[in-house]
Design brief:
With 126 residues, the chain is an alpha+beta fold. The protein has three helices and seven strands; from the N terminus they run H-E-E-E-H-E-E-H-E-E. Strands 1-2-3-6-7 form a five-stranded antiparallel beta sheet, covered by helices on one side. The chain has a two-stranded antiparallel ribbon with strand order 4-5. A hairpin with a 4-residue loop joins strand 1 and strand 2. Helix 2 packs across helix 3. The longest helix has 13 residues.
Length: 126
């Protein structure tokens, strides 16, 4: 079975928060939910989440490239991006694409779920 674009994106995006693994709990037409596991050896280091997006609303594949580069270069501290993306040169895409990816990155809002209620969010900022 092929992995959904939403799950593929979440695996990349949640690396910004140090998530090691995602356990998928539900996937519908309108949303995807699961458990973000920060430390596989510690059952307390988990957070339920839900992302209210359809498959067609998933950000472009270029955003995964940007996120992977941010993580690899350590240009972030959790939800805070520490390097100005506008000032970084990328060989992977042109400036127009980079600007669009930066905008898409800051638009992501994945809800955390505690005791069945949507509470905080996973999102990034400067």
């Amino acid at each position: 079975m092929n992995e959904s674009k939403r799950l593929n994106f979440l695996k990349s995006y949640l690396k910004l928060y140090g998530v090691e693994k995602i356990e998928l709990t539900n996937e519908t037409v309108d949303s995807i939910s699961g458990i973000a596991i920060y430390d596989k050896s510690d059952p307390e280091e988990r957070q339920e989440f839900i992302w209210h997006k359809t498959e067609s609303e998933v950000p472009s594949a270029e955003l995964n490239i940007l996120i992977e580069k941010i993580v690899a270069e350590k240009w972030h501290n959790g939800d805070k991006i520490t390097k100005d993306i506008a000032e970084i040169e990328f060989t992977e895409f042109d400036n127009e694409t980079k600007n669009r990816m930066e905008f898409e990155l800051f638009e992501i809002d994945i809800k955390m779920v505690d005791n069945g209620e949507e509470t905080d969010s996973y999102f990034v900022h400067y």
